[in-house]
Specification:
Length: 344
């Protein structure tokens, strides 16, 4: 649906695989959904996807100088912002008799990666002198560190930089990658996309929402991922700890509200596995606390039994952590309702 939504106005998609650690079953689903390019921030994950036989064009979202050789060997395109790194990439590309393609990332206010617009012409001039590097596009990334929203102003600035570079160097830039899942509102509301013709989407594909307000995108499934944990204790207990209160396991002095005796449950899941603040338990359960290996639930007088399962929805941060935890078993369930849901 996203391929169609964005494709109808000429925007191609990179499917971003990092939140699911490049799980081949999920990446195959992205490709079946019309994504031709898979992008990840970790070279190791791209190597894993290639070994699993995934056939797509691969883009590296975060390039480290020390990995230049592996980058050239493994990926078609990498995102870059430093000339030293590009020099190393060119060196290894020459050694492997390849041309390495790059997208130069431009800083448009969010203050994560990007060449400042005032330095861009000089940066591109230097890059063009590198014999085995081809600049295939420019891009920007917003709403990650600074929370800056993609809007008409910063997207227009990106388009203007494209025009400027093309005129200055007589080149044509193929890929103008305007951003990520945060670009949805801008896309829906702008009368003019300018030169933007690509987005890199992780969260929208995986969780069905845009990432500025975390609003569901109409027609998309927002519960494709479910985290299931086992109840290991279920008891009526006071809600106010007894004894003298000092530091908890994470060095904080906790405060508590006395809600009297409550039915509580503990599930075998903790901060080592997941970002607890991004979990939403199903049903009437409420998360009241967590430590490395335990999440404590107020079960609202619902008498969970030891061995019962509790199901959680996850946000992007929780998904990222859960997929990375070796303690969480990943199981892929073919969804029968998939076709009818997509049709609706
Ligand atoms: C993670 C990442 C994305 C994907 O972001 P979502 O919000 O998941 O769509 C896009 N671009 C870059 C550079 C990233 O690091």
């Amino acid at each position: 649906m996203l391929s169609k939504l964005y494709g109808q106005k000429g925007i191609s998609l990179m499917g971003v695989s990092k939140a699911v650690l490049g799980e081949p079953a999920i990446i195959e689903a992205m490709i079946q959904g019309g994504v031709r390019i898979i992008a990840d921030s970790r070279i190791e994950t791209i190597q894993k996807m290639k070994s699993a036989g995934i056939s797509a064009q691969f883009v590296l979202l975060r390039t480290a100088l020390s990995q230049a050789e592996a980058v050239v060997k493994t990926v078609d395109i990498s995102l870059n912002t430093e000339i030293e790194t590009l020099q190393h990439l060119s060196y290894y590309a020459k050694a492997y008799n390849k041309t390495h393609q790059v997208i130069i990332m431009v800083e448009l206010g969010d203050l994560r990666e990007g060449v400042l617009p005032c330095d861009l012409v000089q940066f591109v001039r230097q890059t063009l002198t590198l014999s085995h590097i081809k600049i295939v596009g420019i891009g920007c990334n917003l709403a990650c560190y600074g929370g800056v929203k993609p809007d008409r102003k910063n997207m227009r600035a990106l388009s203007e930089l494209v025009t400027l570079l093309e005129a200055e160097f007589q080149i044509s830039l193929e890929i103008i990658s305007g951003g990520n899942s945060a670009n949805y509102e801008w896309y829906k509301s702008t009368p003019d996309l300018g030169r933007v013709n690509n987005l890199r989407l992780g969260e929208s594909i995986l969780l069905g929402c845009e990432s500025v307000n975390r609003k569901a995108i109409p027609g998309l499934h927002t519960q494709a991922f479910q985290l299931i944990a086992e109840v290991i204790e279920s008891k009526k207990k006071p809600s106010f700890p007894f004894g003298e209160i000092g530091y908890d396991a994470f060095g904080n002095v906790p405060t508590f509200q006395d809600r009297g005796i409550r039915q509580r449950a503990i599930v075998a899941l903790g901060r080592q596995d997941v970002l607890v603040s991004g979990l939403q338990p199903n049903g009437r359960l409420e998360i009241i606390g967590s430590s490395s290996d335990h999440i404590i639930l107020d079960s609202k007088n619902y008498n969970l039994q030891v061995g019962d399962e509790v199901t959680f929805n996850l946000d992007y941060g929780s998904l990222l952590a859960a997929m990375t935890s070796p303690f969480i078993r990943k199981q892929f369930v073919a969804s029968k309702s998939h076709t009818s849901h997509a049709a609706a």
